Amino acid sequence: MLRVLLLLPITSYRNQDFLDAAHKLGVEVVSAADHCHQLAPQRGLSPILSLHFDQPEAAATQLLTSLGRRVDAVLAVDDAGVELAAVLREKLGLPGNAPEAVRPTRDKLAFRKLLQHNGLNCPAFHHLASAAEARALAAQLHYPVVVKARRLSASRGVIRADDAGDLLQQVRRVSRIQSGADRDAGALGLIVESFIPGSEHALEGLLENGQLRVLALFDKPDPLDGPYFEESIYVTPSRLSSELQTAIADSVQRVCAAAGLSHGAIHAEMRVNDAGVWLLEIAARSIGGLCGRMLRWRLGMTLEELILCHALGLPIAQPEHGDASGVMMIPVPARGIYQNVSGLETAREVLHIEDIRITAVPGQRIAPAPEGASYLGFIFSRAATPAAAEAALRNAHAALVFDIRPDVVLTQSTAR
Predict the structure, then answer these.
(1) What is the C-alpha separation between 198 and 353, in angstroms, rounded?
(2) Burial per residue of 385-413, b for 16 or more beta-carbon CB atoms within 10 angstroms, e otherwise
(3) What's the Rg (C-alpha) of the chain?
(4) Which H or E run contains 172?
(5) Which range has the worst mean pLDDT, 6-20, 150-164, 204-218, 289-303?
(6) Pairing with 378, which of 28, 124, 332, 349 sits 20 to 30 Å away (CA)?
(7) What span, in angstroms and rounded, lies between the C-alpha atoms of 238 and 350?
(8) Residue 13: is its pLDDT beyond 90?
(9) Is the pTM of this model over 0.90?
(10) What is the four-CA torsion angle of 273, 274, 275, 276, rounded to 10 degrees?
(11) Burial (Cβ within 10 Å: 0-12, 13-18, ≥19) of residue 116
């Protein structure tokens, strides 16, 4: 039996999808979680090790000492484990991207430098190591700009600033977000870059011997102009012209080659305007959340099955390329404590809706972007055209009513 090591962040939506894919393929799973024992053993799962994913060299040494017999592949389910996975594959002699190829994809500053060095479209950008640097820079910038935490994902810690005063306010806010989420926040600083206008898209791909295979190109039909950039709707196939779709794939291929990425799943985000394709980021992993479920009709298998098959050298089903499909990451409308949702049955009866998964649990504290790191759930659609798939998502979402109560923190003066 083939054996795969899965690095499973405890907060990932995708853990069960990877475990289900491994079970379907008859693959034995060994798993490791990121510095927490809360992830319970599941069907056919070997005991879970607890590691610090953000300390890859130390974590790799700890894991290799406890691993026992050899594994045939190492996969990270989410961003947090991609560098550790690369280190482990290198030490085990398994195919995959080298650690030095993965690192620039985890750091927005390093990625901007990579684009600039290789002559691709790149906004003007600055590294802010301190608040004093922000004050000195504020009067020199051409606005609007976007302030970003360097290593966070899913639009967390990303805010647009429209003038000098706004910049200083947003630098303070993003610094707080990064400090609460990244142990290296003090050393990292922030990045400030020119705002890129245009439509936003995403590419899901697979690299084999350095060659890119496009699995899907997504449109994001909602304008993402700020001040926050919470993503919501993805629809495929893209409605862009074939020329623009080719230009996107070519840009992604060039950056992967420049970084040294050559093997496995990649997920790229980009904007398109009259000046061409502007890559926002490339991640050495597949699409996040439960969004990959929208692709099973197009791929002939689940995305997680495809990724496991590729990593283990198993046959991959031929794509079906059927109907259009879409997903909505249900946005969080306000900070508070989630209670429940009504209208779910009505939403599920909307034409072209395939499934609705509410992932928030009663009593969970939630927050919208830029602080929030989760969604209320996911809506999936399938239709003959992208427009119909998009409309179904919007109609289903309109039927949902979420009960979110204020998150009241009692202070000494009020708790009487």
Answers:
(1) 29
(2) ebebbbbbbbbbbebbebebeeeeeeeee
(3) 21
(4) helix 164-181
(5) 6-20
(6) 28
(7) 23
(8) no
(9) yes
(10) 60
(11) middle
